[in-house]
Amino acid sequence: MGENPAKNHYAQLNQGEENEMDIFGYKTQSCRRALCIAGYILSCGALRLLFYWKPEWDVWVNCIRCSLEEADIVLLRTTDDFRIYSRKTVTWISVSAFIKSRSDYQATEEDSIFSKAIKKPSLQVILEDHYTCSAIHDKFGSGLTCNEQNVRRVICGPNTIDVPVIPIWKLLIKEVLNPFYVFQLFSVCLWFAEDYMEYATAIIIMSLLSIFLTVYDLRKQSIKLHRLVESHNNIMVTVCRNKEGFQELESHHLVPGDMLILKEGKTLLPCDAILVSGQCTVNESMLTGESIPVTKTHLPRADNSKPWRVYCAEDYKKHVLFCGTEVIQTKADDRGVVKAVVLRIGFNTAKGDLVRSILYPKPMNFKLYRDALRFLMCLIAFAAIGMIYTVCVFALNGEETGEVVKKALDVITIAVPPALPAALTTGIIYTQQRLKKKGIFCISPQRINVCGQLNLVCFDKVMAVWWLCPHCFQDIHSFLADHGLPWGPVFKALAVCHSLIVWEGKIQGDPLDVKMFEATNWVIDDSSRHQIEGQGSTHATVVRPGLKATTAPVEGITILHQFPFSSALQRMSVIAQEIGGHPQAFIKGAPEIVAMLCRAETVPPNFESKLLLYTAQGFRVIGLACKSLQGGKPPAALTREEVESDLTFLGLLIMENRLKRETKPVLEELSAARIRTVMVTGDNIQTAIAVAKNAGMIAPTHRVILVEANKVPGSFSASITWKSLEENKIEDYRSLVSISETGIRLALGSGQYHFAMSGKSYQIVAQHFRHLLPKLLLNGTVFARMSPSQKSSLVEEFQKLDYFVGMCGDGANDCGALKVAHAGISLSEQEASVASPFTSQTPSIACVPELIREGRAALVTSFCMFKYMALYSTIQYLGVLLLYWQLNSFGNYQFLFQDLAITTVIGVTMSFTGAYPKLVPYRPPSQLISPPLLLSVVLNILFSLSMQIFGFVVVQEQPWYSKTDIHSACLSVNNHERNSSFSLGLHGVGDGAHEQTDNGFKSYENTTVWLLSTINCLIVALVFSKGKPFRQPIYTNYVFILVLIGQLGICLFLMFADIDDLYSKMDLVCTPTSWRISMVGMLAVTLAVSFLVEEAVIENRPLWLLLKKTFWYHSKSQYKRLQHVLENDSAWPPLNETFFSDSVAVTVEGNMGGHSNPTFDSSEDSL
């Protein structure tokens, strides 16, 4: 039975977000419910257990479909490949007790979603995002009334992130009801019924120990998470009540729309809030992993009809204070206090999102687990064949029905190892520990295996390189390197145009700003209130000359107001005034943007050529401008548009860019491993290309083609142009030399070219030239001036081409891309954050190949463990079926030895092997159901079957063999007499005590098959323990080698030792030494054949490539198919050509966001 979404029965929650879910409405039906209860009783709870595992079945059987408005039960389903269902009961809330008259309440908020929620309770309650900037100031500026707050509290609930410590009994029940332990319980009951007392007891002890350790770990995590959010729920805050003034209350009483008053000093934010007056400096490291303080400014009182988030575009986060972050500094404006309107509460906040991601991590690697379950189904089918065989054999020999049933069911417990899917995670556990030792922390362990499949890595250039501020600033005024910058507008711009603060005695902020400010030798006085003419006393930042500063004619400069850097606008600006002087505005940002805002007569005629000269050499270039602000409005009342217009161009700030020492070797290593590297940055495109060339992303012999897309003025169409970089020559830049058109075509023909485009061009291509986007991405290496949302979109587009994408960047600007990528790596000092699945404490891209190496090792380890678990159960299964032919089986201690002494110990130690230090130019297989892996399993099953059948048959042909006398092979009469009491009882000799130990398992076939199958388990463990090319050689895993040697020693000891008591306990019988040597010979042949086949066939990569070529196998990956098409397309790429779109643009703004999370994209520091 499945879902058939009807109009009112179905809806989608959190559309387009990471936690997107389908919701279905159901109504409980009494008669169905009664029948189900009867079914629970008749099935002794088995039906209830099944419904516990499959909640969707429970709902489908108990309920009927209905509209969401009528539903009392809802079924939630994830929209990923796993399609996990969960059942929730609908809770109805009543607001009538808080509303004297509905018309009274609606009169105050007629367009409020809360009013609509009163009329239609099924409506999802969210904050009023449709309000304009001015509406937020007007409606919430004076706070909510008590009545409004009470209604909102009932609808929204308390402002708590409630993570209770789960009681031990609940954890215990949940763990015990795991299908694995239910299967174990079934198996144990069966073993007790078959008198496998010791074995069943040992399994019970192991299971209890496993349950205890799991419950302890879960309880520990529950307590840790509870403590993480506990402080959030108990904060005293000050709110402004409409007509009632200020009021102190606990943070869990806050509701969306409340007016929060932020006092001086450090404050932990208990909710998400929009800053509506004043300015704040916030530490967002808990969310982004970046410990750089972030400046927040108040929401402007813009008078327009656009909703506030649309008006602010990507920069709306500059006005939002996020829950869980710490306000480290507040600056009030002329209105006296710093105010913020509560935006989101509880789990809807940024911190709530962090907690939710920890509580419900997104499952990964669906195909791997799907293949594991398919393989498990194959083993169940295999077991079914064994069951039929068992029933036939025992029934034909006249065994009792009960005995036949027990033996048949026993086949399932042997053939189907319930821990098989769990074997896929063994490599992950040890890999996570190794990564932690290397300073790489992981909050999503499921992604480790995915790292082994990465074939494309995007880098934010800022994280790949570091910026050095040279002694020489070059602008339109040249000056000598050994002298400081002379006093003037440029100097003032460098001194004040930044977002730096003094925090814990150090200047903190964007590294570029820090370098720039340090070069002035001025200091920041951020400790006291300052008297500003016309505004009274206010908290403002003052910069003053330091001890080493050049002489300046002023005491200092006060920074009155700032508009922080905007990745969308590509600039920042401040309003400052010399102490005793007049206010001025200073702007810094992308040179081409700054020049557009300046008066034309102030921009030098050679501006573009100078800009290209420096950017093409890899320098970081920043444009500077200023303007005088004459009286009138106070600085805080000026809009950004008023400040950033009619400017005077000051010059270009040139900063030298040097690659980190490890950057080039890392990129070369990735390139040698055939892992594509792509630069995704917010910097100038020419600078980005130069850095890409210096770093080795673009080889010296390869061509760079600039892709420029523009909207055609006055129409809905757009144009796209391809230009070779070498054709953009300028007289000052001699290193860009032209080459012949023949040379260009030759290089392009061999595919040695790279596309470079800006974020603006990328956006236009995505809208107007959607069909060209995959072709451009296939050879796109440099993406410059990319906004955070465009980075997310780019990663998603690469994924659509079937690339496994890694993203390496900072936790602030790149967070959307880090979350969307298969493996996001944040370079941060923090141990872990919600910013990305992986966090490297070392700010170096060297962590990328390290993570890929470990991911590959973890993936191969998982496959090795999977193969071993499958072979071990199959070997045991084949041995038991052979013995069933003679109505025999393995004994208690024989099973115990194989399961505990052999398999459990191997399972623990096999995964200790570390990653191979070199990245090879191909990836490990990503699927379990792949020809090499299946062939390996099938061939080893055949080898095991052949050896066991050979031993089983040949032992019966031996001259000393006897079915009735298990001591016929022993030559000593005394030995025969001494052991005669352990015979099968057919002689009638021996006392009662000895007869109790004679359990009917002893036979020559049993001894032969058990010894062969036990040592065979060691053989497959050794053969499957792959070393190179993805893991270190097996001999480096000392523990595993010692374990194998020890186990082999014990097995050989059991084979050759004639110790009566030991043999009696292990249900073994004495055999001639020649037969024991023969068994060793069989095992040696099996080892040699198995090892040879594994190395010469299974691991023979050239052979598999030849087979692929012979059978015309083509990759299913989209990017490989596209590569093949473009290789045969002589017209691609079209150089020096311009295309026009002939259709209306595709609306993709909604998709450009990729992963839209309110926590991130805090400040794009690439200018």
UniProtKB/TrEMBL annotation:
<dbReference type="InterPro" id="IPR001757">
    <property type="entry name" value="P_typ_ATPase"/>
</dbReference>
<dbReference type="InterPro" id="IPR006544">
    <property type="entry name" value="P-type_TPase_V"/>
</dbReference>
<dbReference type="GO" id="GO:0016887">
    <property type="term" value="F:ATP hydrolysis activity"/>
</dbReference>
<feature type="transmembrane region" description="Helical">
    <location>
        <begin position="372"/>
        <end position="396"/>
    </location>
</feature>
<keyword id="KW-0812">Transmembrane</keyword>
<feature type="transmembrane region" description="Helical">
    <location>
        <begin position="869"/>
        <end position="887"/>
    </location>
</feature>
<dbReference type="InterPro" id="IPR036412">
    <property type="entry name" value="HAD-like_sf"/>
</dbReference>
<dbReference type="InterPro" id="IPR059000">
    <property type="entry name" value="ATPase_P-type_domA"/>
</dbReference>
<keyword id="KW-0479">Metal-binding</keyword>
<feature type="domain" description="Cation-transporting P-type ATPase N-terminal">
    <location>
        <begin position="123"/>
        <end position="196"/>
    </location>
</feature>
<dbReference type="InterPro" id="IPR004014">
    <property type="entry name" value="ATPase_P-typ_cation-transptr_N"/>
</dbReference>
<feature type="transmembrane region" description="Helical">
    <location>
        <begin position="408"/>
        <end position="430"/>
    </location>
</feature>
<dbReference type="GO" id="GO:0031902">
    <property type="term" value="C:late endosome membrane"/>
</dbReference>
<dbReference type="InterPro" id="IPR047821">
    <property type="entry name" value="P5B-type_ATPase"/>
</dbReference>
<dbReference type="Pfam" id="PF00690">
    <property type="entry name" value="Cation_ATPase_N"/>
</dbReference>
<dbReference type="InterPro" id="IPR023214">
    <property type="entry name" value="HAD_sf"/>
</dbReference>
<dbReference type="Pfam" id="PF00122">
    <property type="entry name" value="E1-E2_ATPase"/>
</dbReference>
<protein>
    <recommendedName>
        <fullName>Cation-transporting ATPase</fullName>
        <ecNumber>7.2.2.-</ecNumber>
    </recommendedName>
</protein>
<dbReference type="InterPro" id="IPR047819">
    <property type="entry name" value="P5A-ATPase_N"/>
</dbReference>
<keyword id="KW-0547">Nucleotide-binding</keyword>
<dbReference type="GO" id="GO:0046872">
    <property type="term" value="F:metal ion binding"/>
</dbReference>
<keyword id="KW-0472">Membrane</keyword>
<feature type="transmembrane region" description="Helical">
    <location>
        <begin position="893"/>
        <end position="912"/>
    </location>
</feature>
<dbReference type="GO" id="GO:0015203">
    <property type="term" value="F:polyamine transmembrane transporter activity"/>
</dbReference>
<keyword id="KW-0460">Magnesium</keyword>
<keyword id="KW-1278">Translocase</keyword>
<feature type="transmembrane region" description="Helical">
    <location>
        <begin position="1007"/>
        <end position="1025"/>
    </location>
</feature>
<dbReference type="GO" id="GO:0015662">
    <property type="term" value="F:P-type ion transporter activity"/>
</dbReference>
<dbReference type="Pfam" id="PF13246">
    <property type="entry name" value="Cation_ATPase"/>
</dbReference>
<feature type="transmembrane region" description="Helical">
    <location>
        <begin position="933"/>
        <end position="955"/>
    </location>
</feature>
<dbReference type="InterPro" id="IPR008250">
    <property type="entry name" value="ATPase_P-typ_transduc_dom_A_sf"/>
</dbReference>
<keyword id="KW-0067">ATP-binding</keyword>
<comment type="similarity">
    <text>Belongs to the cation transport ATPase (P-type) (TC 3.A.3) family. Type V subfamily.</text>
</comment>
<dbReference type="InterPro" id="IPR023298">
    <property type="entry name" value="ATPase_P-typ_TM_dom_sf"/>
</dbReference>
<dbReference type="GO" id="GO:0005789">
    <property type="term" value="C:endoplasmic reticulum membrane"/>
</dbReference>
<keyword id="KW-1133">Transmembrane helix</keyword>
<feature type="transmembrane region" description="Helical">
    <location>
        <begin position="1037"/>
        <end position="1057"/>
    </location>
</feature>
<dbReference type="GO" id="GO:0006874">
    <property type="term" value="P:intracellular calcium ion homeostasis"/>
</dbReference>
<dbReference type="GO" id="GO:0019829">
    <property type="term" value="F:ATPase-coupled monoatomic cation transmembrane transporter activity"/>
</dbReference>
<dbReference type="GO" id="GO:0005524">
    <property type="term" value="F:ATP binding"/>
</dbReference>
<feature type="transmembrane region" description="Helical">
    <location>
        <begin position="1077"/>
        <end position="1098"/>
    </location>
</feature>
<dbReference type="InterPro" id="IPR023299">
    <property type="entry name" value="ATPase_P-typ_cyto_dom_N"/>
</dbReference>
